[in-house]
């Protein structure tokens, strides 16, 4: 069995090496859209080491493996309310509001500050439970006395509603990118939070595509800045011309509008979610990875292959829960739009080609998003091993911000920290979440 696992490691190494013939730490010039050479990679340690860490859970289903967000909140005794929020373009979003904490003995006096947490691509609100309950971000915020609002972007399995379109049969439902999510979803949820909490401003925490939506929403709708107390960007994703993840290859294939249209038609607008595979096959990634052999050498390396290596921060006992929920639905247009960012080294509106662009934008080229329009206090957190939001791409994004707006640009203090470690890493609370909480304390309730 060990030899088989070593073989899977070898395949992963050869695949990564095929993407780049060098391991040098040189960076591609900022004005060149080409992948940065990947950072030095070490795959998982010996099978026996990993096996020892999951021995106790062998044959046992992870307690949260197939639970949805409401069930998770109920399991850990966090009171919540559910809201169905309709956007200006008729999409219906499901949002969960954590109103208290079992760890708070006394009710807080006065108005509680609210935090809107927005997930990344291929994820949904349940991704924040990948951390054990004492360490995940929503529960830590609720324990600290904040109201926590867990967003679910349009197209996720939680937010498939629409006034007139059926997400399962109408391909027109899927004709959106994170642009629409930024200018419709984020404002709709923000306004609902302000209305329900009777506050003037909220905190915003975004991860990956959740940060893309923040950048678009606040740059396209400057009035949104007055509603944000502070924004915390985990793996800031705007300028991504140097992305080195294998996801780059898929996105580039879909970047041209004509190729997007073909793929969109074939796939009916989206990829399948883990839940859909589970319903069809009666088996999920979590079930497969409940086997020690699969966890130790296959499932963990799959995560590393896509998002960057950080074996020491991988909690192998959590893999069944993670892979039972990941991926959620992915709209094909998201991948296409990100692919255009990669090919142009720009952060811009969707490119439909010159003819359609002229009709839509009155220009043959799509307009760029102006990050100078963002005035709300903003904080960046990035990982050195992140192969989607590459560190020098984060630097480019930071350079586009208005002077004084970026209040903190923090490199996580772990040299292997990758794109999904913001929600997966064992020490994400120590390395990231506690810093967010300390920065939030600087903003007193008004």
From TrEMBL:
The regions listed as transmembrane in this protein's record are none
Partial AB-hydrolase lipase domain sequence ranges: 70-129
Origin superkingdom? Eukaryota
The keyword Transmembrane is assigned to this record:
no
Do the record's keywords include Signal?
Answer: yes
Q: Which InterPro entries match?
A: AB_hydrolase_fold, AB_hydrolase_lipase, Lipase_euk
Give the signal peptide, or none. Answer: 1-24
Q: Which UniProt keywords apply?
A: Signal
Family, according to the entry, reads as follows: Belongs to the AB hydrolase superfamily. Lipase family.
Protein name (Swiss-Prot/TrEMBL):
Partial AB-hydrolase lipase domain-containing protein
């Amino acid at each position: 069995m060990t030899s088989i696992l070593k073989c899977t490691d070898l395949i992963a190494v050869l695949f990564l090496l095929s993407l780049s013939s060098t391991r040098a730490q040189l960076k591609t010039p900022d004005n060149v859209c080409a992948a940065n050479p990947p950072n030095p990679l070490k795959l998982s340690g010996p099978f026996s080491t990993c096996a020892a860490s999951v021995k106790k859970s062998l044959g046992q289903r992870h307690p949260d493996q197939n639970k949805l967000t409401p069930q998770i909140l109920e399991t850990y005794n966090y009171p919540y309310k559910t809201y169905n929020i309709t956007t200006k373009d008729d999409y219906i979003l499901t949002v969960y509001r954590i109103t208290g904490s079992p760890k708070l003995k006394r009710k807080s006096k006065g108005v509680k500050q609210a935090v809107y947490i927005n997930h990344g691509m291929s994820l949904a609100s349940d991704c924040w439970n990948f951390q054990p309950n004492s360490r995940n971000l929503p529960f830590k915020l609720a324990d600290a006395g904040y109201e926590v609002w867990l967003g679910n972007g349009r197209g996720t399995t939680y937010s498939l509603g629409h006034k007139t379109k059926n997400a399962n049969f109408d391909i027109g439902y899927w004709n959106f990118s994170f642009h629409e999510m930024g200018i419709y979803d984020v404002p709709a949820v923000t306004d609902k939070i302000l209305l329900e909490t009777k506050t003037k401003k909220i905190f915003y925490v975004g991860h990956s595509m959740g940060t893309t939506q923040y950048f678009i929403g606040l740059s396209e709708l400057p009035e949104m800045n007055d509603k944000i107390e502070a924004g915390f960007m985990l793996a800031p994703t705007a300028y991504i011309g140097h992305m080195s993840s294998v996801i780059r290859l898929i996105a580039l294939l879909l970047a041209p509008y004509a190729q997007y249209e073909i793929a969109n038609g074939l796939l009916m607008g989206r990829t399948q979610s883990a839940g859909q595979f589970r319903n069809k096959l009666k088996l999920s990634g979590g079930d497969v990875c409940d086997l020690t052999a699969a966890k130790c050498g296959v499932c963990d390396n799959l995560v590393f292959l896509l998002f960057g290596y950080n074996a020491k921060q991988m909690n192998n006992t959590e893999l069944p829960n993670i892979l039972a929920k990941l991926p959620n639905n992915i709209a094909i247009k998201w991948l296409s739009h990100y692919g255009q960012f990669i090919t142009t080294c720009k952060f811009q509106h969707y490119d439909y080609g010159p003819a359609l662009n002229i009709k839509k934008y009155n220009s043959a080229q799509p307009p760029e998003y102006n990050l100078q329009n963002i005035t709300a206090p903003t904080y960046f957190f990035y990982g050195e091993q992140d192969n989607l939001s590459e560190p020098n791409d984060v630097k480019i994004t930071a350079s586009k911000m208005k002077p004084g707006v970026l209040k903190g640009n923090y490199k996580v203090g772990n040299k292997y920290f990758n794109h999904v470690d913001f929600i997966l890493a064992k020490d994400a609370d120590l390395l990231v979440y506690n810093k967010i909480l300390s920065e939030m304390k600087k903003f007193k309730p008004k």
